[in-house]
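This part of the workshop introduces the protein records we will be handling. As an example, a complete record with its sequence and its structure tokens follows.
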Amino acid sequence: MPEPESYDGSCLCGAVRYRITGPPGTMSNCHCTDCRKSHAAAFSTYIDVDRSVLRFVSGEDRLTTYRALSGTMRSFCPTCGTIVLCFTETDPDWVDISVATLDTATAKRPEYHIFVRSKAPWHDILDGKPQHQAAYGRGY
């Protein structure tokens, strides 16, 4: 499947909508405690996006941002709770988009796992992808 030229995404209730107008970066699965707790799941799947190609179609003013003790920030819809993006102040040019919020299909797949040192003990990673104990990629 060829990759589209742009990607649309939204939160569960549709109040927050965005468009990515350039190629997204790497997709990865994060197993850090913050991601597990905030997504209420074994891990979260994010795709790196250059901020310059991300624009909100609607609802950006509705986003609520939570800063974890680690310094990582997650912006979510206060109505439905969907985490739309994750970012840090130390890397202002990039955000991580929650892949599950994409409305446009992508052939991309996660390339690796990060923060496996804090993965859920009841979850086995069996996909054969590289596993990194901490962060990896984009200069981490």
